[in-house]
């Protein structure tokens, strides 16, 4: 018994078990595909605003605290300097012009009084030098120049001894004699603690106020943005009737306006696409209905003889129409792709126009339309794709002949509007277009939607395809009124 070619392979019998190790039906790849990294968590706008406001407030308060501490220290130093100066003036007034000799004891008692204020009195007497006092205070007074002071001189300065700042107020009360009040520049511990506490309180208050202000500001800014995001999400899901309230700061309002304009444009574009698809469906259904009907009649044997020949001709004609429509749709879809092929070569446009005129002259005669060709005496050369130029001319001529009544004229023109330009033009004697329609003539389905039922119209893709082809060839295609009374479609290409 033989196994038929299409029969499935026989299953293994128990006497002949299958091999223990079988290759898997779908082997795992040698190198597993890299996993996509999970999207990083994003902080909200409100959180970022709060953090930024808090950071700015904290930095501002810290800077203000540091500046305030410096100012407080400087202010305390100035007050101490003024106090030393006043006390030095009082002591100087108690010393007579004979010098310190008779009053040194009095200055000694004054020194005992001011020592409780952390002030040291340094006395300099000729031949005896500086009286025994605090060594650092004496060094500060000496550095300030007290040993060279004379009657009537004053010294008011700040010196540094072993890293410690001292304020010195010296007065000359005799020949090469005088005294000085020396006080260390330092802030009391209690004052320092109070200053630090005040700064910390200011920092905390500033951070709290900044956080609250940032939260309110973030909420005000993020609310319209959330609404915009909600509308955008709804648009992604197919809604086109929603609009974003235009509110908030100028930048946020601009975003809302942009989303609203996008929604309006999408709504109009999708409506136009629906109308275009309906038009194309109608254009496809008509020849398909004819092909189906006549093919069914042939299959059932309803038509025979010459009727069968006529049915075959109708099927052939409608299939050609279908093929052209599908080809136009494919070309229109491929125009924006990089792989759209153009066979560029140096072409005599006169030959292309004359070969096109031979076909359309015959077709015009069949419908009683007068055909006219206008071309210059010499050749016009251009680097272009002759097949695509012919495709554009055929499409324009077909649209023109469709609306041109018998007895009117259809004109095909070749000319040179400039030294480096070539012009091809198709004009008809039909009803033409409304002035506002010339600007939108090459948008898909616009003219079909407006003039359907009022005049013969095509699928709505012919003019769009022609415009796209001419643009890919580096030229321009424009529409306008024709002297024949209808519409004129003008192609301008760079000539060589």
Automatic annotation (TrEMBL):
Its main location: membrane. Pfam families: HAMP (PF00672), HATPase_c (PF02518), HisKA (PF00512). The chain crosses the membrane at residues 49-72, 194-217. Residues 1-40 are annotated as: Disordered. The keyword Transferase applies. This is Signal transduction histidine-protein kinase/phosphatase MprB. It catalyses: ATP + protein L-histidine = ADP + protein N-phospho-L-histidine. Its EC number is 2.7.13.3. InterPro entries: 2C_sensor_his_kinase, HAMP_dom, HATPase_C_sf, HATPase_dom, His_kinase_dom, HisK_dim/P_dom, HisK_dim/P_sf, Sig_transdc_His_kin-like_C. Keywords: ATP-binding, Cell membrane, Hydrolase, Kinase, Magnesium, Manganese, Membrane, Nucleotide-binding, Phosphoprotein, Protein phosphatase, Stress response, Transferase, Transmembrane, Transmembrane helix, Two-component regulatory system, Virulence. GO terms for molecular function: ATP binding; phosphoprotein phosphatase activity; phosphorelay sensor kinase activity.
């Amino acid at each position: 018994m033989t196994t038929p070619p299409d029969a499935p392979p026989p299953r293994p019998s128990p006497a002949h078990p299958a091999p223990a190790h079988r290759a898997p039906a779908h082997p795992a790849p040698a190198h597993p595909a890299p996993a996509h990294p999970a999207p990083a968590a994003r902080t909200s706008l409100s959180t970022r605003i709060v953090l930024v406001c808090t950071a700015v407030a904290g930095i501002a308060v810290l800077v203000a605290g540091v500046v305030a501490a410096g100012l407080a220290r400087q202010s305390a130093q100035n007050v101490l300097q003024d106090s030393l100066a006043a006390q030095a003036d009082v002591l100087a007034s108690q010393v007579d012009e004979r010098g310190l000799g008779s009053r040194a004891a009095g200055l000694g008692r004054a020194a005992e009084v001011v020592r409780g204020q952390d002030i040291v009195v340094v006395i300099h007497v000729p031949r005896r030098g500086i009286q025994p006092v605090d060594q650092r205070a004496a060094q500060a007074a000496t550095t300030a120049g007290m040993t060279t002071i004379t009657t009537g001189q004053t010294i008011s300065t700040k010196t540094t001894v072993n890293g410690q700042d001292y304020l010195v107020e010296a007065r000359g009360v005799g020949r090469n004699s005088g005294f000085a009040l020396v006080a260390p520049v330092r802030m009391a511990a209690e004052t320092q603690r109070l200053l630090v506490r005040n700064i910390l309180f200011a920092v905390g208050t500033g951070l709290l106020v900044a956080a609250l202000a940032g939260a309110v500001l973030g909420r005000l800014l993020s609310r319209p943005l959330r609404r915009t995001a909600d509308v955008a999400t709804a648009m992604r899901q197919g809604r086109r009737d929603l609009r974003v309230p235009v509110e908030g700061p100028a930048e946020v309002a601009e975003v809302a306006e942009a989303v609203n304009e996008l929604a309006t444009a999408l709504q109009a574009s999708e409506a136009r696409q629906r109308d275009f698809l309906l038009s194309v469906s109608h254009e496809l259904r008509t020849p398909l209905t004819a092909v189906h009907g006549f093919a069914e009649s042939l299959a059932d044997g309803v038509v025979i003889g010459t009727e069968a020949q006529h049915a075959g001709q109708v099927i052939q004609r409608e299939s050609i129409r279908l093929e052209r429509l599908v080809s136009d749709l494919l070309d229109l879809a491929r125009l924006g792709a990089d792989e759209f092929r153009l066979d560029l070569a140096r072409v005599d446009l006169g030959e292309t126009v004359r070969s096109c005129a031979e076909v359309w002259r015959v077709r015009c005669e069949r419908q009683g339309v007068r055909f006219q060709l206008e071309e210059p005496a010499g050749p016009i050369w251009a680097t272009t794709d002759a097949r695509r130029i012919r495709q554009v001319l055929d499409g324009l001529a077909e649209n023109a002949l469709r609306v041109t009544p018998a007895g009117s004229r259809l004109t095909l023109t070749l000319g040179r509007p400039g030294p480096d330009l070539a012009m091809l033009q198709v004009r008809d004697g039909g009803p033409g277009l409304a002035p506002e329609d010339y600007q939108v003539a090459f948008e898909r389905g616009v003219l079909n939607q407006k003039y359907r039922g009022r005049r013969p119209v095509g699928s709505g893709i012919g003019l769009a395809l022609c415009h796209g082809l001419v643009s890919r060839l580096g030229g321009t295609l424009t529409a306008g009124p024709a002297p024949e009374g209808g519409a004129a479609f003008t192609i301008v290409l760079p000539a060589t």
